[in-house]
Amino acid sequence: MNQRTSGVLMHITSLPGTQGVGTFGKEAYEFVDFLVETDQTYWQILPLTTTSYGDSPYQSFSATAGNTHLIDLEQLADQGFLDRAAFEGVNFGDDVESVDYARIFDLRRPILEQAVKGFLSNPARVEELAQFEQEADWVQDYADFMAIKESFDNKALQEWDDKAIVRREEQALNAYREQLKDAILYHKVTQYFFYQQWAELKRYANQKGIQIIGDMPIYVSADSVEVWTMPELFKVDAEKNPLCIAGVPADEFSDDGQLWGNPIYAWENHAKTNYAWWVYRIKEGFKLYDLLRIDHFKGFSDYWEIRGDYQSANDGSWQPGPGRALFDVVKEELGDLPIIAENLGYIDEKADQLLKDTAFPGMKILEFGFYDVEGKSIDAPHNCDVNSVAYNGTHDNEVVNGWYANLTEEQQAFVDAYTHRCDNEPITQAMLRTLFATVSHIAIATMQDLLDKPAESRMNIPNTVGGNWQWRMRKEDLTDDRKAFLKDITALYCRKNPNKG
Description:
Elements: E1 5-9, H1 26-37, E2 42-44, H2 73-78, H3 101-120, H4 123-135, H5 139-151, H6 163-166, H7 170-179, H8 181-207, E3 211-216, H9 225-229, E4 244-248, E5 258-263, H10 267-272, H11 276-288, E6 291-294, H12 298-301, E7 302-307, E8 316-320, H13 324-334, E9 339-341, H14 349-358, E10 362-365, H15 366-369, E11 388-391, H16 400-405, H17 409-418, H18 427-437, E12 442-446, H19 447-450, H20 480-492
Parallel strand pairs: 1-2, 1-12, 2-3, 3-6, 6-9, 10-11, 11-12
Antiparallel strand pairs: 4-5, 4-7, 7-8
């Protein structure tokens, strides 16, 4: 990460295609080819883990299991597991620029069940599944959890009708495993599909000189296999109910703060195990990605703990996190790793010191840097530092067109002057030029800005549920002119892929 390079932030779900959501299919391979053509080094994505209520990849049933929406049905047909008639002609959604998650949730399951049946009819494939189960030691617990959850109409763990299985009593677990063996097998096989397809796509990218930047949320969901199987690692009661939850106090997104709902870690118990679960989790992350962005890095120095009788996210307090001790263990166990710290929001002296101690590159968000027209913001382009990853914005920010439209006239004039914006030049191009000109070793362009998309293409509005994570690109939007622009600024600002060829 010590060379000037660049990349594009584009989640898998946002890829075009005919299956209602982006997948690991041919459009993903074509996206890799686009990155190669424009001399990029990185493809940054959001978490690949399962999504639950609200469709957020940051609220998952598992810290490890993959999102089966991303499994490409065409590939399953090519492998002989599925008849194309099962999905060709199916209407997975009427809007090609938006994912209809409720629709694909209902439509994909019976199709995947057919593929699982086709897979299991081949003895050689069953042997491959057995090998996968040996290597993926988490998959049995995950398959148990999902099958049992479905048997309770997909209710959250804490709402399951049988408290014996909530507590994971051995007799109850054995009974459910026998009763739900077919459903459990379904979840194992679909995880095999996911991991096999992702491994092939990542291999293709790596062979082309493209590295994948993945994303690891700091917290797991209360409704997750980890809370079910390892409750001692979380502040929960005997029925797995969170005693306190995560979030942040009032910020630029909400006067009431943000209620994330994730259970807080019992950090003292993690310390007693020498942070074994964290070492395991990060190790698993690097099986999927080449670089790993750790979300909400601030939470490792100190975190906002919201008490159980909360009325709003402001009903909380800052509590000390594990700090450097955790990352010293990770380094001792796994060596030096290419980790990116998402060090945004409430970065005080303690959080800043942890970033310095780990020497991880932090993040700079140029949109934040232009609110102060005197240029004093730590995110102003001239205040970027070499050991950082620069963005105009991430999935939680407005796209540049929406952001610029909401600036004051004074702020817009400052942006125009600072970026040397030419007459009739799209503000997206002016900002991307400025981004690539920073001294940050890595610059990441969001795909919406590269495509000059409007405000409605924003990926997520923090502290809201519904209507997020839906944006998809149209294939025809990626024109030769847009490719040429990206290639030109990559060359001009000395960010060409050093691994190309």
